[in-house]
Design goal:
The chain has about 675 residues and is an alpha/beta fold. About 25% of the residues lie in helices and about 30% in strands. Helix 4 packs parallel to helix 15.
Length: about 675
């Protein structure tokens, strides 16, 4: 049967519309939902969430800002911090600082990196005052928060990661813990001098209504975490949850809803599905939080088993790598996804990234704690100080805590696995805190009395006595004393007999390597270098240096290394000694004696000789043992020696201040 041209056109148009609509429906499939006790994607595939919580982004907790003096510093809240900063900056400059801090905290590069490290989701702790007026009687929406959220969602979409929206700081405050909700009290339930409980709850409803309206059809929204860590006696939590769900479902029937129990997401007795009656929403799961506990069943596990609903570990962390590994292993064995706390904190070891402190931040910290260190009358000078800290917040300027990431992701397949901390190329320096990543007994051994390797109770002592360097039970502190350009600023300390650290180093060439240690101790101490099989290769008794930060460089002797990876253990026979770094020198390539004198250092590499001095170098002359000049340079610190034959050479260096120095080195 023939079809006329007009009918063909109509058919093609109709088919085109159908195909377009089908493609649109197909495209909108990247969301999560409940399937019995599982969280699944739109196609029904089980999704095990591996996420990170963006603590210290929209909501700042004072401990993340090193604020500890709450008597002087004011209430333990974000707004107390901002009020204090507001005394040192003009209002416009305060807004600029906050905006730039938040802009630098999370960027496309951060999200790309999280994906590359193995994470598939992000939990966004939201502060209501970025989305809706903080005035109890004014419910005007604020675009800033929605814009920030949408920008982050787009970065997640580009990486195929789920974004879970968490109301972390609710209007009025959801409990007595002021820091987590940036509030002065539980006014969400009780009201306060600024508004009634009904006003704050209405604002909460309107917040979620607008979130649902704007994000109902957005991809890669993983769900709505309705209220973070309520902590108040007998709140009307069920009633509020019912009202919020109804508001959300007016606009969004697709996305998963996640409910946290009272008492920091641990008590679900008042919100179990049987309490909801006909108001229960089938596309709902529960979120528990977990800190400083053993690795057993979770709060909410009985709900999962009884009511066939999913359970998500929506917040956990703030512990050692040992605890991280075990807790995630336990969660995933139960098909419980997780979101770790937190992504970036200032000068920390347990987050994924550490925002480095600098001179500017030390002034800011002193001011926040004691209201000293900044002149509140010098607003321009203070702005310059705050600005000079902002770049530290960007990922490219943060310290990536690689050991933390390894414990959460890389370690999971094998508890016995270890991995070199970095490239670890030798000849070269290996900082003491860059021992292999891994667990107790495999990467390190810590046995200092009652010290724990993980905190399973809030009463446990710190697992790292110096609370710096690494997130293991190995004790570190920040190095002081005489500066050394080879030091990265950390040293292992509080050592005791039988403790050890494993270092896997990558030798660029096979040969004999001399190992030097930079050490400090108050009494005689014995330290050894052992093989991976615990055979003693080198051992030395080191006399007192005069203090735990009074440093000396000791020659441990030589070991044979093959080209490529080699594993050694730094073993503390008697303890009581601090170690700053290990320096590997290839003695087969060359040797140098008396290479350091006051005011001048000679560094000899495989192909280059370099002079380190405070003054400019006028001339550098190399003689053979017969006195013949084989190399001469003027106004240069470096000399090429790759073409020299094997043997002993004498070096004479003259500096701009007329000083002259002599050295000797051997080239094989």
């Amino acid at each position: 049967m023939k079809m006329n041209i007009m009918n063909k056109k109509l058919l093609f148009i109709t088919l085109g519309v159908v195909l377009f609509q089908s493609a649109s429906v197909f495209a909108q499939q990247n969301y999560l939902k409940r399937d019995g006790d599982r969280i699944v994607d739109a196609q029904g595939n089980n999704v095990l969430l591996r996420g990170i919580g963006l603590g210290n982004y929209m909501v700042w907790e004072p401990y993340m800002w090193s604020v500890s003096n709450y008597v002087t510093g004011g209430n333990n809240t974000m707004h107390a911090i901002l009020n204090r900063i507001g005394k040192a900056l003009d209002p416009a400059d305060l807004s600029y600082f906050v905006d730039q801090y938040m802009a630098n905290y999370i960027t496309r590069r951060d999200v790309d990196s999280l994906k590359a490290w193995g994470f598939n989701s992000i939990r966004l702790p939201m502060h209501y005052n970025l989305f809706i007026s903080k005035d109890a009687a004014d419910n005007t929406y604020i675009e800033k928060g929605f814009e920030m959220t949408e920008r982050l969602r787009q970065w997640c979409e580009a990486n195929q990661m789920y974004l879970i929206l968490d109301l972390h700081a609710a209007p009025g405050g959801q409990g007595d813990d002021h820091a987590i909700s940036d509030s002065d009290g539980p006014a969400l339930w009780t009201g306060d001098v600024n508004g009634t409980a009904d006003q704050y709850q209405t604002k909460t409803l309107l917040f979620w209504q607008e979130v649902a309206r704007r994000f109902a059809d957005k991809e890669w929204i993983g769900g709505y975490d309705l209220l973070n860590e309520t902590n108040y006696s007998n709140p009307a939590l069920l009633s509020l949850y019912k009202r919020i769900v109804k508001q959300i479902r007016q606009y969004d029937n697709k996305h998963l809803i996640l409910l946290e129990g009272n008492w920091f997401a641990n008590d679900f007795s008042s919100i179990s599905p049987d309490k909801w009656g006909t108001d229960w929403d089938a596309n709902t799961g529960f979120s528990c939080h977990r800190y400083w506990s053993g690795h057993n069943s979770y709060a909410g596990s009985s709900l999962r088993d009884t009511y066939n609903v999913p359970l998500w570990l929506g917040e956990s962390g703030e512990n050692s790598n040992e605890w991280f590994y075990k807790e995630i292993k336990n969660a995933e064995s139960l098909n419980v996804g997780w979101a770790w706390w937190a992504y970036k904190k200032i000068d920390n070891i347990s987050g994924l990234l550490s925002i480095k402190s600098n001179t500017a931040f030390e002034k800011i910290k002193t001011y926040l704690n004691n209201e000293t260190g900044l002149d509140i009358n010098d607003k321009a000078g203070n702005l310059a100080i705050f600005k000079s800290f902002l770049d530290n917040v960007r990922i490219e300027n943060c310290k990536i805590n690689r050991d933390v990431i390894f414990s959460m992701i890389g370690q999971q397949s094998d508890a016995t696995a270890t991995r070199p901390y970095g490239a670890n190329l030798v000849p070269g320096v290996i900082p003491a805190n860059e021992y292999d990543m891994g667990l107790q007994g495999y990467a390190y051994n810590e046995n200092s009395g009652s010290q724990v390797v993980e905190r399973t109770s809030s009463s446990d002592a710190p697992y790292n006595q110096g609370w710096t360097g690494r997130n293991d039970a190995v004790d570190f502190n920040k190095t002081s004393g005489t500066a050394d350009e080879k030091s990265n600023g950390y040293n292992v300390g509080w050592t005791s007999a039988g403790e050890w650290l494993k270092y896997t180093v990558n030798a660029t060439v096979s040969g004999r390597y001399k190992i030097y240690l930079r050490v400090a101790c108050t009494g005689s101490s014995t330290i050894s270098i052992k093989s991976r099989n615990d055979a003693t290769l080198l051992s030395r008794s080191i006399p007192a240096t005069g203090g735990y930060q009074t440093w000396t460089r000791v020659d441990m002797g030589t070991v044979d290394l093959v080209k490529g990876w080699n594993t050694l253990k730094l073993y503390f026979d008697t303890g009581g000694i601090n170690v700053n770094y290990l320096d590997f020198v290839n003695t087969d390539a060359l040797a140098v004696s008396d290479n350091k004198v006051s005011g001048c250092i000679l560094l000899v590499g495989a192909n280059t000789l370099t002079v380190k001095a405070d003054q400019d170098v006028c001339t550098l002359t190399i003689h053979d043992t017969l006195g013949k000049v084989v190399k001469w340079t003027q106004n240069q610190r470096d000399a090429e020696i790759s073409n020299l034959s094997g043997g002993v050479y004498l070096v004479q260096v003259s500096l701009a201040d007329a000083q002259s120095f002599q050295f000797k080195f051997y080239k094989k």
